Prior knowledge:
- With 334 residues, this protein is mainly α.
- It has 13 helices and 2 strands, in the order ααβααααααβααααα.
- A two-stranded antiparallel ribbon has the order 1-2.
Amino acid sequence: MNEKPTAEVARSQKPVSPAAAILRQDFDRRRPPPAEPEPPSTPPQDEFDDEYLCPYCAAKTQPDDRKCPACGSKLWVKIRRREERSSWLWVALSVQMAITFWPAAAFLAMLAYAADKLGIANPLTLVPAYLGLPGSVPPEVVNAAFELVPRPFILVLAFYLPLSLTMFIGLYLRWKPIFFMLLFSSLLTFVLAGAGMALHQEIGLTCGGGGVILALLMALLLFQLEDDFFFDEKRILLSVDRGAKRGLDFFVHGRRYARQKMWAMAAIHLRRAVAWLPGQIDCHLELAVAYTYLKRYDLAAEALAAARRINPDDPRVEELAALLGSLCPADSPP
């Protein structure tokens, strides 16, 4: 007598539905790719381990050299003390935006008031008249507008708006002259407020005291913003980037340095990419190019040979081999 199969056995013997099969295929496609292989425990040791080599041409330099004696490239760069914009800078930008917005609103409101009283459909047609430029508004209407909104009011706002907008842009871009302009403005505010307090009048004491407080607040804010605007000099050392951790990182960083013509920096990153990804032909070819520009034709030939073993039919291999053949001395072919 045959035993009745259990529920588990029955389910295993049941044909898979089309929907389940599709779901299984989709799950298989979504599986994460295999992890990259671990690099060799001991990286190659050669002349490129000297961090004071020129990052462009790999020539020997001294720690205090400003330029490479071989290729003339600059060995020092200026970097911001604060890479990202500080929270205090965003506060300053918000304040400057408000300082820019309200005069602009007042400018448009004055023009709209004059245009409404004079029956002008587009208030902006009054702008040329206020700026002393030829326009389409009749002279009698212009004179009436000047009586409603005196011309000096509009001229002051027209001068202040682009200045305030320039300050906002300069703050966002962290231009150093803007910092000194704000510092000068703070000092000038403090002096004028102090002069107002020296008048010993009630209005002078009130306004002057408020001006002194405003100047001190501006100075305190500027002290918080100093690192946003200033730079420090740093020597470019021939060392791998801290952000590069795995094979693809080293390859991407190496290609970026190659585009900047920093061939020694490219080489030390690409040879680590080769150690991580020995089966990737692009890593070997990029390394061969970097060695070629460094005139290390022997190392370029080794990298090219590794690329040829991976794919001897790749046309880039033959192109690079022909280039090496034209550059190498006759007694030491690649």
